[in-house]
């Protein structure tokens, strides 16, 4: 994606009032309030069930991408919903200089990876104990940035 297209994409998203960066669809409340630090569970579920992008909120095609920490990648269990590969790259570039955990993860953006896949499973935890957030498991890995 060109820098111009990436800028246009990000310009349509709300801004984090503290950090000044564009906030993805999955981190924006229904009332429009937005924080790049927190993942909104209701939006995550909406992305999974409707197959829409966690960054721009538009329908996904194929391949899809997952963005997350190296730990999430090693476990093949991502918390951030699937995104368009271009949207994933744009939001990682947007957050690259932040020195705080973003998108619902404690890890710094510089430690994040982007994995592309042709499909995924949405896994909802059966237990209410511990970390019971839903995760996404890529079912075939195409590439890793
Ligand atoms: Zn998108």
Topology:
Layout: H1 3-11, H2 41-50, E1 64-69, H3 70-75, H4 85-95, E2 112-117, E3 120-123, E4 135-138, E5 141-144
Antiparallel strand pairs: 1-2, 2-5, 3-4
Bound molecules: zinc ion.
Could you give a short account of the major beta sheet?
3 strands, antiparallel
Q: How far is the first residue's CA from the last residue's CA?
A: 15 Å
Low-confidence stretches: none
Class by alpha and beta content: alpha+beta
Helical residue percent band: 10-25%
Order of helices and strands: HHEHHEEEE
Number of domains: 1
Mean pLDDT equals 91
Give the total of beta strands: 5
Oligomeric status: single chain
**Cα-atom radius of gyration:** 14 Å
Query: How many helix segments?
Result: 4
> Strand order of the main beta sheet, please?
1-2-5
Q: What overall geometry do the principal axes of the alpha carbons give?
A: globular
The distinct ligands, each listed once, are:
zinc ion
Strand proportion: 15-25%
Description of the structure:
The chain is built from four helices and five strands, in the order H-H-E-H-H-E-E-E-E. It is an alpha+beta fold and 145 residues long. The strands form two sheets. A three-stranded antiparallel beta sheet has the order 1-2-5. The structure holds zinc ion (ZN). Zinc ion (ZN) binds at residues 53, 55-56, 58, 83-84, 87.
Question: Which properties best describe this structure?
Answer:
4 helices; binds zinc ion; alpha+beta; three-stranded antiparallel β-sheet
């Amino acid at each position: 994606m060109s820098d111009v297209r990436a800028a246009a994409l990000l310009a349509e998203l709300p801004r984090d009032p503290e950090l000044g960066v564009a906030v993805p669809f999955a981190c924006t409340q229904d009332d429009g309030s937005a924080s790049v630090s927190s993942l909104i569970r209701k939006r995550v579920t909406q992305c999974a069930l409707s197959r829409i992008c966690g960054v721009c909120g538009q329908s996904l095609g194929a391949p899809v991408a997952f963005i997350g920490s190296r730990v999430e990648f090693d476990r093949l269990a991502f918390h951030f919903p699937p995104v368009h590969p271009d949207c994933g790259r744009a939001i990682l570039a947007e957050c690259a200089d932040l020195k705080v955990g973003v998108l619902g993860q404690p890890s710094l953006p510089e430690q994040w990876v982007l994995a592309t896949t042709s499909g995924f499973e949405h896994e909802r935890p059966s237990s209410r104990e511990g970390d019971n957030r839903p995760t996404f498991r890529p079912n075939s890995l195409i590439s890793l940035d």
